Amino acid sequence: MARFSLAVAAGGLFLANLAEAREPYTPKHEAGRCAIRGQCGKQSLFGGELPCVDNGLAEEPDDGLRERLVSLCGPAWGSGPVCCSEGQVISTSPPVQ
């Protein structure tokens, strides 16, 4: 009986998520518009930070963030607006040794 209840609960969650997926989180799709930005918490105690849904415009980063982006992702990130926050870049960067 417990397995059946678990299966029904899981099915209910799946259907609720499916219904929610019909409403787009990022209704605007165009060059220079973001889909994610920043950090919105963890999915589990041991998991990494998850990005936030953000459908705003990309923004010019400050000099510190620009420097971190170029050192982590390469020279292609040396100019132009971005859809990330300094916290995202820091959490993605390898530890300094």
Q: Please identify the structural class as seen in this structure.
A: alpha+beta
SSE order: HEEHH
Which blocks of ≥5 consecutive residues have pLDDT under 50? 2-16
Bin the strand percentage: 5-15%
Gyration radius (Cα, Å) is 18 Å
Give a count of the beta strands, DSSP E runs of length 2 or more: 2
> In which range does the helix fraction lie?
25-40%
Largest pleated sheet: 2 strands, antiparallel
Strand order across the largest sheet: 1-2
Based on Cα principal axes, name the global outline: flat
Task: Look at the structure and give the mean pLDDT.
Answer: 79
The rounded distance between the terminal residues' Cα atoms is 54 Å
Q: Count helical runs.
A: 3
Give an overview of the whole structure:
Strand 1 and strand 2 (49-53) form a beta hairpin. The protein has three helices and two strands, in the order αββαα. Strands 1-2 form a two-stranded antiparallel sheet. The termini are far apart. It has a domain at 27-92. It is 39% helix and 12% strand. The protein is α+β, with helices and mostly antiparallel strands. The protein has helices at 2-21, 63-73, 86-92, and strands at 36-42, 49-53.
